[in-house]
Amino acid sequence: MTTRWEQLAGPDSGTKYQRRFDALAASGQDMHGEARFVATRLAPGSAVLDAGCGTGRVAIRLHELGYAVAGVDVDASMLAVAAERAPHLPWVHSDLAALSLDGPGPFDAVVLAGNVIPLLGPGTLDAAVGAVTAHVAAGGVIIAGFGLDAGHLPTGCPVTPLAAYDLACSRAGLELADRFGTWDGTPFLDDGYAVSVHQRCASSGSG
Fold this sequence. Notes:
The chain has a single domain (4-204), classed as 3-Layer(aba) Sandwich (Rossmann fold), CATH 3.40.50.150. The chain has seven helices and seven strands. The chain has helices at 4-9, 14-26, 33-39, 57-64, 76-85, 125-133, 162-171, and strands at 47-51, 68-73, 91-93, 107-112, 136-147, 174-180, 193-200.
């Protein structure tokens, strides 16, 4: 099934996407909030999967901070840019709803940044959360940040209600540990964006 990202972005989006973030970085904007957030919760050396990694911005920064990382994305053009920028890191081409990694993992954390959740294929939320959770070590976490209204989502991307995401996590054996309003850790006020930390129950084992 085609994801909403593929429907909205079209083919060969990787170079255009990276050019946009390069321009933002050159303007002085902080591009590493997600990686910094992860670093406050995990010891260096922990294994992290950047799920929906795009051109590798978060994964590459986490690697620079001392984490063992891998990236996965459904968009081959985005992965091509990631592989060019960091050929020493593992990049996997896969839809998250059908994720099955042969090699890296299990992971201490999976990060889903950049509106990955609402950009999944229609009707695949449970499958994607379940497949990702299968690669999380017992006691590990899934950290997801995404918009909750049109103002925080790409044009044409429908809203995934937070309650629907929480339910998918619960079905996958995850429990809500923390929730914030931004990647800077500000309190969650239900004003359009959420960063959620769900933990895999130790009793559930690893996939």
